[in-house]
Amino acid sequence: MRTVRTLTAGLLAAAAALAVAGTAAGAAFADTPSPSATTGKGGAGAESAPTEAGTGFRTATPFRPGQKATAGASSGDYLYWVLPVDAQQRVTVKANVTLPESAARHGASTWQLDVYDGLRRRQACTYGTQSRAAAKEATSVELSCTLRTVRAGAEPWANDPLPGSYYVRLTVVDLPDEDLGLPVRAAVEADVHEEGGAYAVDGALSTPLVAGTVTGSLREPEDGWSGGWWSDRWLWTAAGGVLGALAGIFGYSLTRGAGRPSRVPPGA
Amino acid sequence: MITRKRLAARACGLFAALAVGLFPASATAADGPTAKEPPKVDLVLDVSGSMRANDIDGGSRMAAAKQAFNEVIDAVPAEVQLGIRTLGADYAGDDRTLGCKDTKQLYKVGPLDRTEAKTAVATLAPTGWTPIGPALLGAAQDLEGGKATKRIVLITDGEDTCAPLDPCEVARDIAAKGIHLVIDTLGLVPDAKTRAQLTCIAEATGGTYTSVQHKAELSGRVRQLVDRAADPVVNPVATEGAKQCEGAPQLKAGLYSDRETFGEHRWYRVDVLPGQELRASVSIGADRAVNNDYGVLLRATTVHGREIVRGSEAGDGRTDVLSTGLRYPKAETDDDSGSDAKPAAETVCLQVSNSFSAPASVKTTPGMPVELTIDLVDGPDSASDAAAFGLGRGWWTLAVLVLAGLLAGLVWGWISRWRISVWRTN
């Protein structure tokens, strides 16, 4: 019985250690985007947020989640940015357009935010105001788009979001002709939320969907692509194994009884 | 298994780096020179009589333009080759044919001598007609040669006054030559007709249109456009798709451009080895006024016409491009035919079709710009389970495992108790 007890204690300790290590690892993984957010704001040696936008897929300006990319433009321009998104991340892209002074405008205008994946396939927004009409008196428009959680792999026939570049396009889709070409300011931000193992899938792309036209260090996330093997499923499963073993020992101790009767001499 | 793959990839990377180090000339020959060519910009300035009007911040349009030019000349990035062309600067008379030929190169496109360029600009005085079409043709000639990015910045205050030659058509024809030329237009206090014409020119070449009401806006915007020319950009290679898969151009990984008119489809061929993944995406540009609803379809088929996978997209309203893409991982073949036989590549046919339409008044030739990217990478790790590595997650998994452990323990204990009792009775 004593051996059973020590065994149980040992296993419990091991389980506790595993759990602690697990949460620590989980926390470390969940924390990864926040350092990028702080370094992205233009610390020493960090790349600073872009102040221009591209005008097409080929010229899209790269930026990182956590940075605030800004650009001066004319209303009617199509503004493109591109950012890297890894598996198990859920991105919310937010845009803010500062409209021209309302005295110069002739009516309401409708602005729209579109997100495309690395294959230039349009990605659905699960929520957020992707398109919004601004009244003539409005000074700015806020748009946002939350994508589906990015998966490490998908069937070729699926339109599921995959790790790689994501293009953001911001433009006006409806406005009076007289208001074309007036100066506007646009700002775009992307927040990344780690969704964890709930969205971990089997199978992974050999290389993320990064277009060849995206160059430089902004091709990939700050700490590289995850490779898709890690998820908290490892912790759940390992913890399940440990608990199962404990339950097994408990069950064994219930049915086995007191063990070898003490009155039987050891030699018998 | 993934770590092994990573190791292999790293080894490959190392090998590649070594190879590049050993044979630098052969490695850079493929894509080096295009990146090094300096980008070219031609500023086209309207010097017609109407530029005398005093309506930009109390000064004349001409004064605003001159000031902007001086500021831009000071701020041009070193690598940009800048030229200046004027229209309507010399002929003040009433003869239409003469007035419509009045465009000349004021400063040659090349390395910039700032004082020389400024002196040239200072001599300008508002004079003649507004021959935008001929000026654009001239500017395209100024920029001719080389594979670098080319940009025309057109600054005008009025519509074209040389009617039969529509500057919008001219712009589209220039763009269709495939010389990577973009025309940005700026209208100085534009009226409705000027605006329509300038937006049409910008739209036709993938450029932008700006309406200028203030001096500061003008110089800021021109400077931004010139800076934009200095941004490195990957230019596509021109190709021409066929009407059917047979005889279609064979494409390798890269970026391609083509033209496709309304209701047309074009075919291309790509060789995919077993174990490779084909990634293709296509963008069709709406470079003219099109009807409100439109679509694009990209299909990958076998040479026999069986569809493998497709990407499609549809939309409505104002847009610059409509794009879609597809992935086709070709399965690894079973290696039973002997290891020395090289696996045969499969020819995949790519069909690009569009459902754009245009009002009858819109010219359909040349076709709309098509941009096609082809990428060939290693195939994905095949999935054997929906969940990652078949691992479980959540309370149900824990409960099942605990229950299974408990049952196993109970049975084990029961067996051992039974064995002890058997042993005791003996």
Structure description:
The complex is a heterodimer of chains A (about 270) and B (about 425). With about 270 residues, chain A is of the alpha+beta class. Helices cover about 25% and strands about 25% of the residues of chain A. Chain A has three helices and ten strands. In chain A, α1 runs antiparallel to α3 (about 235-255). In chain A, about 45% of the residues are buried. In chain B, strands 3-2-1-4-5-6 form a six-stranded mixed beta sheet, sandwiched between helices. A five-stranded mixed beta sheet of chain B has the order 7-9-16-11-14, with no helix packed on it. Chain B is elongated, with a radius of gyration of 32 Å. Residues about 1-35 of chain B have low confidence and may be disordered. Classes of the chains: A alpha+beta (about 270), B alpha/beta (about 425). Chains A and B meet through β2, β9 and α3 of A and α1, α9, β6, α10 and β11 of B.
CATH superfamily of the largest domain in chain B: von Willebrand factor, type A domain
Major sheet of chain A:
6 strands, mixed
Number of strands of chain B: 16
- What structural class results from the helix and strand content of chain B? alpha/beta
The total tally of domains of chain B equals: 2
Q: Give the count of structural domains of chain A.
A: 2
Per DSSP, what share of the residues of chain B sits in E-state strands of 2 or more residues?
A: 25-35%
Identify the CATH class of the largest domain in chain B: Alpha Beta
Kindly provide the radius of gyration of chain A, computed on alpha-carbon positions and rounded to a whole number of angstroms. Answer: 27 Å
- Overall pLDDT of chain A: 81
H/E topology pattern of chain A: HHEEEEEEEEEEH
- Assembly state (oligomeric): heterodimer
3D shape of chain B = elongated
The CATH class of the largest domain in chain A: Mainly Beta
CATH architecture annotation of the largest domain in chain A: Sandwich
* N-to-C CA distance of chain B: 53 Å
